[in-house]
Amino acid sequence: MKTRFLALCSVVLSSFASAGIGKSPNVLLICVDDLKPVLGCYGDALAKTPNIDRLASRGMRFDLAYCNQAVCAASRNSLMLGSHCTSIGIYDLSKNFRKAVPDAVTLPQYFMKHGYRTEAVGKIYHTGHGNTNDAASWSVPEIPDKVVEYVDPENQARGMTREEAYFSNKELNRINQLPRGAAWEEADVADNAYADGRIADNGIKLLRAAKERKGTPFFLAIGFVKPHLPLTAPKKYWDMHDPSKFQLPSNKKLPAGAPKYAGKRGGEISNYDGIPGDGMVDDATARKLIHAYYAATSFMDAQLGRLIDELDSLGLSEDTIIVLWGDHGWHLGDHGMWTKHTNYEQANRIPLLIIAPGIAKPGATRQLAESADVYPTLAELAGLPKPVVPQPLDGLSLVPVLKEPSARIRDHATHCFPRGEDRLGRAIRTERYRLVEWKKPGAAPETADLELYDYSLKDPEAENLADRNPEVVRKLRAILSQQPEALAAPGNRLKPDRHP
């Protein structure tokens, strides 16, 4: 077995050598906060994302990629640990993953153990809501930046807003006494007046420094924060879009026959000024929010373009594996919902691009992929030993699919979301269906509420089809039953979803 494994590593390294990458390729991991696939390369005709689109042309685009939970902290845990949220029992924003797996070896830690210099700029782990970054993951301290900020004096005059307090870990005991901030901002300012411009500036500096360090490969994680709320971007990115072209959601109702708790009303969006508590905004506000989301995405895209241009100009591209990953999707008014925090398609489908010169064929695949897959995929691409780590490694390497887009390594993706204190929705998404099983972790299967949706239909989430399709439900539950039961949260209670 050991001989066969060493032979496999030799094949992978030989592939990189033939591509000019050598034995220790660099890694550029680009994480984008709240980015759904509203991108030109994913077929969105209204998107203005030329830099992500040209990046996609260099490697493999995963058209059916899903996060493992549609909330920032848990999703990033899955990426950095290669673990499902249900395997470690951390589902909320405030608990650090090391409370569940103290000795976990994160993705950058694993690369550090194999001689890499690991660095981070911007938002990689979720810092806020009482949670902190993971210093053990980095060779040197990360370079953080703001998630919530304003440059308009009128917005700044509000003082510390609720969301600023959450993301700075300040005044968490009196959040409801703080003012709501603006949900969007359109200011005629330079790009680096906002965090993503500064994140790109610092990323470029680190790339230049890496070029000067010979013999030490880098693992550089860049965490762009837009299009996370507030939807702030320089005016020129707003001007790129014609708001009259955006279509408002036609269906503002929750799926018929679904458990009432499966959807949501309000939540994160309601922490912003002018948004009602139930999040049911009027058409003018909805159109403004959609425009703002696209503008913020275009702003982030331009900063990513600067980073990739620098990588190219330094002559590092042929020696560098690039991954672009969105931490989860985003509801843009569909079902009357905004932001994330559900088990539905718009909250869970993510963009995933993998560029590995000499390995990844340019193109697209319909192989179902998960955030947890990035860890073992990068390890194999870099020619590192197969990870044996303290935490559960639930992800699968996508390298066979990078070599041949029609290859299949799994027939479903897995995700989950909690509701209330004792109910968890575990979901599997096949190419056609999504099944959600709602129950308390450890409870008998017959206690579950079920949802089933068929994505071959024109309006796939209009109605819960579980009662109409018992045979499909039976087959999908059989798949779900093969997975380990979800761990309960520490204290045997799931955290109430009072906030995103």
Notes on the structure:
This protein is about 30% helix and about 15% strand. The chain is an alpha/beta fold. The protein has one domain (about 25-410): Alkaline Phosphatase, subunit A. The strands form 5 sheets. It has a 7-stranded mixed sheet with strand order 4-6-1-8-12-2-13, with helices on both faces. A hairpin with a 3-residue loop joins β15 and β16 (about 425-430). α2 packs across α10 and α8 packs parallel to α10. It is globular. The N and C termini lie far apart (about 45 Å).
Topology diagram in text:
Blueprint: H1 2-18, E1 26-32, H2 50-56, E2 60-62, E3 65-66, H3 72-81, H4 85-88, H5 107-113, E4 117-122, H6 153-156, H7 162-168, E5 184-187, H8 195-212, E6 218-224, E7 231-234, H9 235-238, H10 283-313, E8 320-326, E9 331-332, E10 338-339, H11 345-348, E11 349-350, E12 352-355, E13 363-365, E14 369-370, H12 374-381, H13 399-403, E15 413-419, E16 423-429, E17 433-439, E18 449-454, H14 470-481
Helix pairs in contact: 2-10, 8-10
